[in-house]
Structure formats: C-alpha cells, structure tokens
Design the sequence.
C-alpha cells in the first residue's frame, strides 16, 4: 500500500507570494491533518480535514487555509508569505476514527526569501 | 490546555546502553500519549501510544514507555541502543479522544556512540 505523498518536496518562494501544497493520503484514509515544523516553534498543528470538512483547527492566522477533495486529497494554501513561514510542512492521514494512527508524509520544505 | 515537556534536547548514549528519553505532560483530562520518531528528511513514524488500560506500552523497534499518572510522565526506554536508533524523538499528547489534533513536545535528538 502506498504511503502518504506530498508534493512538491521542496519549494522556494519570495515574501508576499502565495503557495499551495498538496497531500495524497493513504488509500481509504478519510482524515488529513497538516502540521508546521520549525526549529523555533517545533511541530504545530494547523488543521484537519475529514470528508471534505475542516474538523479541527490550530492557532494559525487566516493566511493559512486548506481544503479536501472528494478523493480525500488535500491542499494547503498560504497567502502573503512571510519569512517566518519557512518551515517543513507535514501532512498526516488516518482513517479518522478515534485513536487511529496518523501516518505522516515526508513533508514539503518551504523556503521564503 | 495540554502541554508536553521533553527533558533534554540532546541525549547521547553508547551502542548497547540503555536509552531513556524523558517526557512530562500537563493535562486536565485523561491524556492520550504518543511517542514518534523522525529520521532525517523524513516524516514522523509512530513508535507507540497510550490510550487506556495497561500503563506499560510496548512499541516498535524494541521501545516501550510507561504511563505514570502520579508523576505525569511518559518516559521512553529501550534496553539496548542500536546505531539505527539515532533520530529525533517526539513525545505528544492529544486533545481529547480525537487523535487528529496532537500537541508535540520540542523533541529530543538521540545520538548513538559506537
């Protein structure tokens, strides 16, 4: 069974631009969660989508948004990029039920110049 | 609000020695606790989790952790370190029964000396 895939793996943008990251979950998984990992703030939960609806949300500004499609694939969008948005963005998928293990993708490394 | 504190950002042990990575949590409700491992340039992999029941939890790769409510701890141990154990380890707690919103500790980098 294929794992969680994230595209692109690396991305370089400049301040003020916007970016879209993509995550394809494991087949059959309906939940996709997004995390931001930085050396200063560590791993922080962004949001979770389940059956095309946002089910949980972390404490990030509205510049960070996401969506999920009917095939469970998810995209995350960051608008008006800031230098501090440089991070590894991880996506995780699960069946979406209680205590289900989350399976993480390799991440997208975003650098904002 | 729930939180996790990992004591020691870097731990170094000799190959074959005991591995002990410390984790303390703060929670006003019964916590669900996890340990994840991250190898360089990779995502996170679940080592083990505690939800309810037996307080000693066994995971993959020979790791185990014990939930101690009185000490609010969930330390990770492995009797004998292997070179392949070198990685970053994250302790985490979930908010409520939904394991989708996970609060991570700051991580502990484990180095193994030959």
Sequence:
């Amino acid at each position: 069974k294929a794992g969680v895939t994230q595209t692109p793996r690396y991305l370089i943008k400049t301040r003020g631009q916007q970016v879209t990251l993509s995550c394809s979950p494991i087949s059959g998984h309906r939940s996709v969660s997004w995390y931001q990992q930085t050396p200063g703030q560590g791993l922080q939960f962004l949001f979770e989508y389940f059956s095309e609806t946002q089910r949980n949300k972390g404490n990030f500004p509205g510049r960070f948004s996401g969506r999920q499609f009917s095939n469970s694939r998810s995209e995350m969008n960051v608008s008006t990029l800031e230098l501090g948005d440089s991070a590894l963005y991880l996506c995780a998928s699960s069946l979406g039920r209680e205590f289900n293990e989350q399976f993480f993708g390799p991440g997208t490394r975003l650098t904002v110049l | 609000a729930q939180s996790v504190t990992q004591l020691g950002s870097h731990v170094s042990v000799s190959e074959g020695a005991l591995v002990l990575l410390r984790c303390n949590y703060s929670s006003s409700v019964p916590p669900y606790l996890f340990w994840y491992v991250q190898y360089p340039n990779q995502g996170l992999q679940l080592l083990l989790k505690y939800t309810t029941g037996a307080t000693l939890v066994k995971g993959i790769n020979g790791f185990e952790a014990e939930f101690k409510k009185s000490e609010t701890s969930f330390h990770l141990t492995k009797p004998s370190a292997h070179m392949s154990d070198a990685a970053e380890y994250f302790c985490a707690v979930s908010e409520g029964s939904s394991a989708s919103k996970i609060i991570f500790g700051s991580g502990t980098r484990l180095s193994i000396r030959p």
The two ends of chain A are 37 Å apart (CA to CA). Chain A has a mean pLDDT of 93.
